[in-house]
Write a structure and sequence with these properties.
about 375 residues, 14 helices, two-stranded antiparallel ribbon, 4 strands, mainly alpha, globular, two-stranded parallel sheet, single chain
């Protein structure tokens, strides 16, 4: 199955006042303000695009080199049992960087302009169970086009969880905390199954048979990853096979838990908003930007933290400009925050512990009617 990466078509503008209640306060913008707001954000994007060059190419190549070095070092040290914790940590870090800072960002087309065949978003494949072609559709197109629109954005709960009060409750959601924990530790497999549209299968809208080809592609990728990490590398290790097996298992767990935390803290902490299909019909560019900001949250931290998050710690800027090199988000975040302040739009930002605690509270609260 081949899925084309589709660029959203610019909708027919609708002149209307924007209103959204956030934590009891109504955010209101006139049509003229929305247009000016969109123009200011467009100007930021155009300025960054005009400035792209060797600095950006050097950055992503350094990340690729660092990821490969961490992986080689980690796999080599697994042959020295006393250094197993260090080896596993290095391998886990390599998987995190491959997943977050390289794979996710490259597949967004952030480095297509370089013309490097190894960094072309449409053909890049990453070291995780989810087929990259599926990700380019379910994430790059569906999620980034319909961000936080209930019944359109399948990232709201990943078809497993109830993450919005606007999602109709059923007794199934009493297991929300359990499902969330399982999704966290098995995150690469949850992401791999995303394109199966399990919520539609549960609702009886489609059958598993309708997704036969999708399931085959998921199985091919998952089988490849499983054989690599849990069969091939352990067999090559001979008497050290148990250490290599356990190291790979732990490194994958590190990557799964970290990715879950970063992604959920960027989308679902207290203060993030969901939207209905009706209120987002025929959005202008400014209205689309408005939705991206209110549906996102940032994380505070140092430079290494931002790298390990794939710069998705700047989730607001990423949702505004998903095809700009992510390492640029830190540079423009101050401008984006200032624009939000001037137009009276909340700019949601907090530490990882704070944001994750609010995500956990939401998961537990929404388990109930």
């Amino acid at each position: 199955m081949t899925i084309a990466l589709t660029t959203p078509v610019e909708p027919t503008p609708v002149e209307r006042t924007l209103e959204k209640t956030v934590d009891g306060t109504t955010v209101r913008m006139s049509a003229e303000q929305v247009e000016a707001f969109g123009a200011e954000l467009d100007a930021i994007k155009e300025r960054v695009i005009a400035d792209l060059g060797e600095r950006d190419a050097d950055y992503i190549r350094r990340m690729v080199k660092a990821q490969r070095g961490l992986e080689i070092g980690g796999r080599a040290l697994l042959y020295l049992p006393p250094l197993w914790p260090v080896a596993t940590a290095l391998l886990g870090l390599s998987k995190i960087i491959d997943n977050m800072e390289i794979g996710h960002n490259v597949m967004h087309g952030q480095y297509d302009w370089m013309g490097d065949p190894a960094l072309q978003g449409r053909v890049f494949e990453w070291d995780t169970a989810c087929p990259a072609e599926h990700w380019r559709h379910s994430h790059n197109y569906m999620h980034h086009t319909y961000t936080n629109i209930v019944d359109m954005d399948r990232d709201i709960g990943y078809g497993i969880l109830r993450m919005s009060k606007d999602q109709k409750w059923s007794p199934y959601y009493l297991g929300n905390p359990v499902y969330a924990f399982l999704l966290m530790v098995l995150f690469q497999y949850g992401v791999a199954l995303h394109e199966m549209e399990t919520e539609r299968i549960r609702a009886g809208e489609i059958s598993v048979g309708d997704k036969r080809e999708v399931l085959k592609e998921i199985w091919r990728k998952t089988k490849k990853q499983t054989l690599k990490d849990y069969v091939a590398f352990p067999l090559l290790a001979g008497p050290f096979a148990p250490f290599v097996f356990a190291g790979n298992l732990t490194a994958n767990l590190m990557r799964n838990v970290w990715a879950f935390m970063i992604i959920f803290c960027g989308h679902f902490p207290a203060g993030t908003q969901e939207f209905s299909i009706e209120e987002t019909k025929a959005e202008t560019r400014g209205q689309w930007y408005f939705r991206q900001i209110l549906g996102s949250a940032n994380l505070t931290g140092g430079k290494l933290f931002h790298i390990l998050s794939g710069n998705l710690s700047f989730q607001i800027e990423h949702h505004l400009f998903p095809d700009l090199p992510a390492h640029r988000y830190a540079e423009i975040s101050g401008e984006v925050r200032d624009i939000c302040r001037r137009y009276g739009i909340p700019y949601n930002s907090g530490s990882l512990p704070k944001q994750f605690a609010s995500v956990v509270r939401k998961i537990v609260r929404l388990a109930l009617p």
